[in-house]
Amino acid sequence: MRTKMGKRPPKIFYLMNRAYAALARAADRRTKAEADLSLAQHGVLFALTLEDGLTVSALAKMLSMGKPSVSGMVDRLAARNLVRRQKSAEDGRVVRVFMKDKGVAVVARTNPVVKQMNAELLAPFSEDEQEVIRRFLKHVAENAEEVLAVKTPQKEGEDA
């Protein structure tokens, strides 16, 4: 399959997988150097700066991770006095996660590093190209499930 210009279309899955793996490795090294946190742990703290008191389930959904993984990260962050768990007053089965002062300080220190990483990644591109990149990544994040859903073949004789 070729494009109108006679070129092969980009191998999006391959390129995105390589880009994600390289980006995650490099960012993980940098967040560990800055704050002794994994990239995923930083993600939990950052999510709590957006909305403190999230449940583990809500954090898992927000970060596109499994609940057991997020629960383990919350345990490690709590052991470092960065977050605290608190049972919900409305439903004792629900546990909410809150930032502690030390966690707020870590995010305040690491957010400029994350902004710098974003700036470094986007530096080679014009503003217009950066907007296309943003739109593409947002499209993938918001539509991947729908676009790539398993299509059930229509049986012979069924109406469309």
Descriptive report:
Residues 9-142 form the HTH marR-type domain. Keywords: DNA-binding. GO terms for molecular function: DNA binding; DNA-binding transcription factor activity. One of its GO terms (biological process) is response to stress. It comes from Shimia isoporae. There is one protein chain. The chain is mainly alpha-helical and 160 residues long. Strands 1-3-2 form a three-stranded antiparallel β-sheet. It has helices at 12-35, 39-50, 56-63, 67-79, 101-122, 127-147; strands at 54-55, 83-87, 95-99. The model has no long low-confidence stretch (mean pLDDT 89). The protein contains six helices and three strands. A hairpin with a 7-residue loop joins strand 2 and strand 3. Helix 1 (12-35) packs across helix 5 (101-122), helix 2 crosses helix 5 and helix 3 crosses helix 4. The longest helix has 24 residues, at 12-35. The radius of gyration is 20 Å and the shape is flat. It has one domain (12-147): Arc Repressor Mutant, subunit A (Orthogonal Bundle).
List the helices and strands and how they pair.
Layout: H1 12-35, H2 39-50, E1 54-55, H3 56-63, H4 67-79, E2 83-87, E3 95-99, H5 101-122, H6 127-147
Antiparallel strand pairs: 1-3, 2-3
Helix pairs in contact: 1-5, 2-5, 3-4
Domain HTH marR-type: 9-142
Organism: Shimia isoporae
GO molecular function: DNA binding; DNA-binding transcription factor activity
